[in-house]
Structures are given as C-alpha cells and as structure tokens.
Amino acid sequence: MSPRAQGLRTWLLQRLSAVYMIAYTIMAIVWLSLNAPFDFVAWQAIFAPPLFNIFTLLFVFLLLAHAWVGVRDIFVDYVHHLPTRFVLMTLISTMQIMLAIWVFMALFSVVQL
Amino acid sequence: MKIRSRPKHLNLIKVRMPITAIASILHRLSGVFLFLVTPFLLYIFVSSLKSNSGFVLAVEWLDCWLIKLVFLILIWAVMHHLLAGIRYLLLDLDIGLNRSSAKFSATLAIIMALVLSLLIMLWVLL
After folding, report:
1. What are φ and ψ of residue A111, in 5° steps?
2. Which of B31, B39, B92 sits opposite A70 (nearest CB)?
3. Which letter does DSSP use for residue A3 in this model?
4. Who has the most CB within 10 Å: A11, A48, B88, B111?
C-alpha cells in the first residue's frame, strides 16, 4: 500500500468508480436489450468499436479498483495484525492487477480500428 | 465506577439493529460476495470473447443449475449493492441525512433490491 493510495484518495476513487459503473450498467442494459447477441460473431462485434471497447475496459479496471478499496476497508476493520494485513493486501493487489492485465489482453484482441 | 457495570451488548443477536444497520451490513456482505465471484465472472467473459468454443462453453455454464443458483444470489447482490450504494452517494451529498429519511431510504433500498431481483429472475427464467 503506497501512502498516496490511502484515505481521501481511495474514498474518492470508491465514489467516482461507483458513479461510472452505474452509468456503464445503464448503458450496457439499454444496448444489450436493443441488440442482444445470439452468437459468437455478434458478441465479439460488440467490443470491436474502440470507444465501447475502452468504456468496457475502464469499467473492469474501475470495478477491480472499487473492490480493492472495499476489501481494504474490511481488512482495516477486522485484521488488526499489521503484517498479516499487509500480506493479504499485497496478495489481493497482485490478483486485481493480474485480472486487469488479463481482461485488457482479451479486449485488446477483439478491438478493430 | 458505576459506568463500568453498565450492560454491554456486543452480541449481534441481542443487539436490536436499526434498519439502517441492516442495510449497511447487507451492503458489505453483498460487496464481499461480488468480490469473490468477480474472477469467475471475468473468466467467463474472457473465454466467451476468445473463441467460439469458449462462447459455447460460457452459454453452457450459464445453463447449469448450480451456476444459475449462484446467479440468483448474484442478481440480488448486484441490486442491493447498487441501490444501497446510490443511497450512500446521496448521503455523501448531504441528501437524506436526518433520521427519518435515512430510515426510509434504507428500507426502500432493501425492499427495492428484493423486488427488482425477483422481477429480473422471473424475466430471465421465463
């Protein structure tokens, strides 16, 4: 945990990511109900336009960050042994970063410029 | 030291929880659940994007009853976390801070989450 990622900044990140995720969810529900993908080609084609691809990528990144802050808050409440908390947070940070890279590669492979 | 002999009820079953506390606990529980299922959901998403066989497999998984059961909880968790989350965003903006409206919005979030997830389940299953 870097000192910069504590307190007000993470609090703000939690709120801003929430607002973005609400907006994306509404957009995705409207979009999917208008043209529901029935096969693989149509499903891949949804994420082909760069703008929607980036919106989706940003959604996943913010989701992982939002969850990271939430888990951190829970650990601050319940895990009082600092070395244990540090190890747990390091594991979860690594997991979230790996998931982010993994989703980035998957989304990047279907984008069409 | 009279103050020390006052009864302390930290037993969660004995403590009478206000509805706002219940909304808060459910917000945290649904958040933990969503955190735990996120890697699994991303796995389904990534494999459905990668290849046709992955897409078919994802559709097959979503048809499996065990995963459908997880999805029933997931739909509720998303709805509750979303509605209670919007409530917190409004509280952060100083909207609905007094006791009666905070109690009302907490009740509303809990009930609306149940009603909306029931409607979504019916819509998905039918």
Report:
1. -75, 140
2. B31
3. G
4. B88
With both helix axes pointing from N to C terminus, report the angle between B19-50 and A82-108 in degrees, rounded to the nearest 10. Answer: 40
Question: Is residue A113 situated within a structural domain?
Answer: no
The pTM score is 0.89
Phi and psi angles of residue B50, each rounded to the nearest 5 degrees, phi first: -70, -50
| CB contact at 8 A, A99 and A64 | yes
pLDDT tens digit string along A10-67? 999 999 999 999 999 999 888 888 877 678 998 999 899 999 999 999 999 999 999 9
Chain A residue with minimal CA distance to B33?
A: A67
CB contact under 8 A, A40 and B46: no
Asked whether residue A63 is assigned to any structural domain, the reply reads: yes
Q: Where are the domains of chain B?
A: 27-37+65-125
What b/e sequence results for B62-77 when a residue is b if at least 16 CB atoms lie within 10 Å of its CB, and e otherwise? eeeeeeeeebbebbbb
- CB B32 within 8 Å of CB A74: yes
B15 min Cα distance to partner chain A (Å): 19
Q: How many distinct structural domains can be found in chain A?
A: 1
Tell whether A112 is covered by a domain.
no
Nearest residue, CB atoms, B82 vs list A22, A71, A99: A22
Give the position of tokens 């319940």: A78
